[in-house]
Amino acid sequence: TVLVVDFGAQYAQLIARRVRECHVFSEIVPSTMPAAEMLARRPKAIILSGGPASVYAEGAPVAPDGLFDLGVPTFGICYGHQVMAQALGGTVENSDVAEYGGATVAVTSPGMLFAGLPHEQAVWMSHRDFVSSAPAGFTVTASTDVTPVAGMEDRERGFFGVQFHPEVLHTEHGMEILRRFLYEGAGCRPNWTMVNIADESIDAVRAQVGAKRAICALSGGVDSAVAAALVQRAIGDQLTCVFVDHGLLRKGEPEQVEKDFVAVTGVNLHVVDAQERFLSALDGVTDPEEKRKIIGREFIRVFEEAAREIVKGGSEGGANASEPVEFLVQGTLYPDVVESGGGTGAANIKSHHNVGGLPDDLQFTLVEPLRTLFKDEVRALGEQLGLPSEIVWRQPFPGPGLGIRIIGAVTRERLDVLRDADAIAREELTRAGLDRDIWQFPVVLLADVRSVGVQGDSRTYGHPIVLRPVTSEDAMTADWAKLPYDVLQRISTRITNEVADINRVTVDITSKPPGTIEWE
Ligand code: XMP
Question: What's the predicted TM-score (pTM) here?
Answer without folding.
Answer: 0.85
